[in-house]
Every structure is written in C-alpha cells, then in structure tokens.
Amino acid sequence: MRSEFSVRLTALTRKEIRQMLRDRSNLMVGLLLPVALILLFGYGLSFDVRDAPVALVLDDNSAAAREAVSGIEGSHYLSPVYVDTMARAETMLQSGKVDAIVRVPIDFSRRRAAGGASIQLVLNGIDSTTATSLDAYVSASVSNAMLRRVDREGAAGRGGSITLMQRTWFNEAGISTWYLVPGLIVLVMTLVGAFLTSLLIAREWERGTLEALFVTPVRPLEIVLSKLLPYMAVGLIDLATCLLAARFLFQVPIRGSLFAIVLASALYLAVSLLLGLFISGRTRNQFAASQVALLTSFLPALMLSGFIFDLRNVPVAVQVIAQLLPATHFMGMVKSLFLAGTDWMMVARNCTILAAYALVLIFATRRTLRKTLD
Amino acid sequence: MQSVIAYIAQIAFLCRKEVLAILKDPANRIILLAPAFFQTMLFGYGATFDLTNVSYALLDQSRGAAAREFVTRLDGTGVFEREATLASADQIASVIDPGKVLLAITIPADFDQRLARGEAATIQVILDVRNSSTAATAAGYLNAIAQRFNAAHGAAPAITIERRAWFNPNLNSLWQIMPAMIATLSMLQTLLLAALSVAREREQGTFDQLLVTPLSPLQILVGKALPSILVGIAQSTIVLMIVLFWFRIPMSGSPWLLYLGLLSFTGAAVGIGMSLSALALNMQQAMLYSFLVIMPLTMLSGLLTPIRNMPEGLQLATYVNPLRFGVDLVRRVYLEGAGLADVATDFIPLVLVASVTLPLAAWLFRHRLA
C-alpha cells in the first residue's frame, strides 16, 4: 500500500515536471548552458603566458650583452621584439604592444667585467598577474644564461652553486586549465542551481497559486521535495556533460574515485538547488529572489571559493566567510579528486558538511511554506 | 517648443514611476545598494593573487652549515613558513596530499660536500600544483632565493635585474582587481535590473497598458533605461569610494573621464539588459537570459585572466563584451592616468553596443507581443 505521502509527492512532482517541460526555452537553457559555459571557459580562461611580446633594447650591443639576454629568444613564454631606443619601447609598453621591456644598459660589458652589471626590466603593473609571471621568466632566463657560462668556463667562482630540481605533483605540466576546469564544474552547478529554482516559489506566491495549494492536504515538505526532484534530474544531466567535457575534451585526468566525484557533485547540486528554493520562499518576490540568487551564487563561488584565488593567501576573517560557503567545501574536494586522488577522510568530512547544508536548507525552506497568510 | 517640454515631461513621469517602483520596497533598496559595499570589502581582502604565506615541509638530510644557511634565507623572507620537519622521503605524500603544505624541500646528504668541492648541488622541490598560479609564484620566489644564495657565494656572475613596474610599483594584485570591480560589480546587478524591468510589467500585464498610453517606444525606453543607469552609477560610486578611501589605491586619472567611461559602459550594459527584457515573456526567462549573458561577460572580460591568453576566435568574440572595454577603461584611467586620447578606442565598442541594443529594445517593445 502506498503511503499518502508518496501519493501526494508523486502527484506534485508530476505537476512540476509538466510545468518544467511546458516552457521549453527554460529547459533548453538549463541543458545547453553548461555545455556552452564549459566550452567557453575551458578554452577562454588561462593564466598560462605564452609568447608574450617583450621589447629588447640593447644599448650595449656586445657579445656579452647578447649572451645575457639570449635565453629570452629561446623561451616559449617570451617572444622578443628588438627595438632601437628606450623611448620607442616605452611607447610600445604604454600602448600595450609589448608586455615588458628588457634593457641592457650601455655600460653593461664594462661593469660585467668589473663584476657588478645590471639589466633593467620594466613591467606593466596594470595586469600584475602577467607581470609577475614575466618577471620570473625573464629572471630565470638571465640567470640560466649566466650559469651556462659558468659551466663552460669551469669553476670560475669560489664555491659551488645550487640548482633547484622541481617536481610538480598533481599537475605535471603546470597547465592552468587543469585546475580551472574542475572549478568550472562547481561554478556551473552553482549557477544551474540558482537560476533553475530561485523563482519557483516566489512565482507561485506572486500568482497566488501557493495559497490555493494551502487548502489541499499537501504538506510543506512535499512541496519542497516536488520542486527539487525534477530539477535535480536536469542538474545531473548537466553534471554528466561537465564531467565528460573535463575528461575527454580538456584531458583533465580523473585520479580520484569517480564515485566520490559523482556523490559530492550530486550533494552540492542538491545544496545549490535548495538554496535557490530557500531564497525563493524567503523573498516571496521574483525581483528580489533573482537579485539575491545572483548575489549569493555566482560571485561568491567565483571569488571566494578558492576557484581562482588561493584561500591560503586571504586574511582569517575572509577565510571564515569562505568556509561558510558550501561552494568552498565542494571546490577543495573536487580539485583534489580530479588531480590528486581520493583522500577518503576529506571526502567524508566535506560530504557530511554538504549533506548538513542540504538538510538545514530543506527544513528552512519548509518553514517558509508554513500555511499562514499575511 | 511646448511639445518638446511635454515630451520630456512624459519621460520624467515614467522615470519617476520607475524609480518609485524600484525603491518603494525597503528590501529592494537594500538589495540594490548594500551588496556593492559588502562585496567590495570582501573581495578587496579575498581576491588576491599575492602569496603572503607559503607553508613548506623540510627534509634536511645533510644537516650541514650550507643547508642551514639556505633555510635561514628561506625563513627570512617572511613568506615561507615551515609547517613540518620530515625525517624521511616517504613522509612527503602525507603532508602534500591533504594540502598541509604547498611544497616540500629536500636537501640531499651530500649538499655541503658538493658545494665545498665547487660542484653543483641540487635541492629537490616538490610542488603541489593543484593551483598552478600559486605554485608558479612560489617556485619563482624559491628561484630568486637560490639565485641570491649563488651570488652571495660567488658561484654565479652577479647580474642584478633592476625591475620597475609601471602604474603598480609593487605588483600588488589588489590594484589590478579592485579598479576593475568599479565596472564589474555594478554591471551584474544593473543588467539584471534592466532585464527584469519590462519582463515584470509583461508578466503583470501592465506593459500592454503602457503601450496604449501616448508614450512612444522611445520614451518608454528612456524612461525605463535611465533609472537602471542611475542605479548602476550609484553602485559604481560606492565601489569607487571604498577603493579610493578604504583600500587607498591612488587614482591617477581624471574623475570626469572615469565617469564618462562608466556612463557609456553602464549604458551598454543596460542596453543589453533591456533587449533581453523585451525578448523575455516573463521574469523567469528574463532572469535566465541575464544569467546566461552575465557569466561569459564577466569571465571573458580580462578581469581575472588576461584576454591575450585566449584562443584567437574567443579574443575576437570579446569585442562585443562591454565589460572587456569597461574594465580596460577603468583600469587605465584609474591606475595609468590615461587621457581621453589613450582610451578613445575603448569608447567605440561601448557606444556601438549601446546604440545597437537600446534601439533594438525599443523596436522589440512593439514587435514582440505575446
């Protein structure tokens, strides 16, 4: 015998599915958006500097000077543009034609023979990320050129030198796509959750259909679940799209357990759909609901979840706020599961946090649907 | 003459009604003005690429004087902080995997002897590259320390690199991000506000009433667009004030030029919002369309990752993105002190987008009745 609960839930869910399917544009966007986003951002977002134009001004055109900057010629990251005068190079930097200027001053050879030469590097600080990378690449290429010289001339110095041998774990080639694409899954799930559900209850309040529902025997919990389930299905299709794109299109390795990834993503999806429902039930007004959904979903997940900005670098107060976001817990877990492997302790802890969020949100949303009228 | 006054008065009445409709509800007032403040504060502290704290694990197998000197140099930077001291190499995974440390440094047993013999001694560094930009920055710091070590020991010819960074002398990423926020934060809400403006009236049925009034579509457009633009400028001003007086990022350019830029930028954003609004049949669709546009506009704007790193095709596509030029314009005027001649090329796409989308919206008012 079926319980009354399941009868009512099935009926309500069927109604929600019909409503969802009736507005095809809504459903189409729900299904196509993740594909579009992951393609656009997977290809569009990158911190990897390649062939950045660098103006080379050789005021001293001697062999020693050329040797010092020879590394810039061979670097994948830099592409030298030879310029005669510093004034022209400065104009090029100002107008963005080059990203940096490397200048070898006129007294370079003389001072190098005396043991204290210098090279000037001028960067455009407006894009400080690129500037920092270029700084590192130019320094490395100059110091490599110098070490090469030492190697060839034998032990010219008094002592031995140290070299760093780097092993990069989890992202061997250091490609930013590898850490951005798993993060994109978080972003897509956040957005899908927010825009699919955040107007559902508010719309019914505005149209008065929710009050009509109050005279029926349905319980608030059943309304919440019936609105969650159909969109959960849409979200899971989106999730599958994202995972397939990450693995096969962007070639991001999945080193952890696929089961853990799917479990965590499904939990997070539920949290973000429920957050949308809660906002909707709380504001009871589509205008406010959509603004709040935009504010609480997209930007925090982008800026504070550790997607791009490393949370290790932020002050404690901001870390505390970041820890309050469900996205932060999902972000850390999904990046590790993709690149590092399965740390079951972490999976268990973060999944518990997400599940707790889901439960709290279910009950909070249920409270907003208590059968009372203003 | 009288007809001109009447024409403008009609627009003013509609504007007034729109402003009242937006601000009448105290909840809306909070929703439209408070987030700009909180987000600016939060992102000002949270959105940073600067590494202030690199935790590392040390495995010192040599226990010699040179190794100690290297570690002292490392700790002396104030950035590197030793989180763990390891006894053997098989402990490395246990501190790297859970993210306890960003890197593990192994100094081999023969480190001191090799240096004393004048040979090259290797330090092994294992980096957690789950976040490749953090790892690259940390690796850059380490290299710099190694170079200084070598130079101090006379192992490498001392060539110093004198670096100067224009417009942002300390390469502080806050300076890169916050001025861009002046444009970004206001765009998000303003676009959505404009997108909901007509859709709400459609859904409530009042838009048909508006269409049968003597107002022309152009007047409706101006009456609906102006309040959104005002809200956008107000939000930008809040962000600007915080960036200027709280984060104290010095502004080099002219405020007039900055506001002229913000005006054309907000106009373009509102134009996009209005067109979406005219297309949408109800608020759900309007919101959907706005979310659909807002995300690519934000992410492909050069706000977080440089445009130059994108594939060619995508770079071309960003020419229709007002935020790309808004961010560029605000950054250059704010940090560089660029004049009108320098940023004139940023105005062209902004004005183009506004002058296509706003009339399009007006046309759609009449031609999309459902």
Distinct helical segment count of chain A: 16
For the biggest sheet of chain A, the summary is: 4 strands, mixed
- Give the overall shape of chain B: elongated
Q: In total, how many beta strands of chain A?
A: 5
Across the major sheet of chain A, the strand order is: 2-1-3-4
Output the helix-strand order of chain A: HHEHHEHEHEHEHHHHHHHHH
Multimeric status of the protein: heterodimer
Tally of strands of chain B: 5
* Secondary structure tally, helices of chain B: 14
The overall pLDDT of chain A, averaged over residues, is: 84
Largest interface: A-B, 120 and 118 residues
Structural class of chain A: alpha/beta
Report the sheet-strand fraction of chain A.
5-15%
Give the fraction of residues assigned to helices of chain B.
55-70%
For the largest beta-sheet of chain B, the strand count, sense and barrel status come to: 4 strands, mixed
Distance between the termini of chain A: 38 Å
Descriptive account of the structure:
The complex is a heterodimer of chains A (374) and B (370). Chain A is of the alpha/beta class and 374 residues long. Chain A has 16 helices and 5 strands. Chain A has a 4-stranded mixed beta sheet, sandwiched between helices. In chain A, helix 2 runs parallel beside helix 11. Chain B has 370 residues and is α/β, with parallel strands linked by helices. In chain B, strands 2-1-3-4 form a 4-stranded mixed beta sheet. In chain B, helix 3 links the parallel strand 1 and strand 2. Chain B is elongated. Chain B starts with a helix and ends with a helix. Chains A and B meet through helix 2, strand 4, helix 7, strand 5 and helix 8 of A and helix 2, helix 5, strand 4, helix 6 and strand 5 of B.
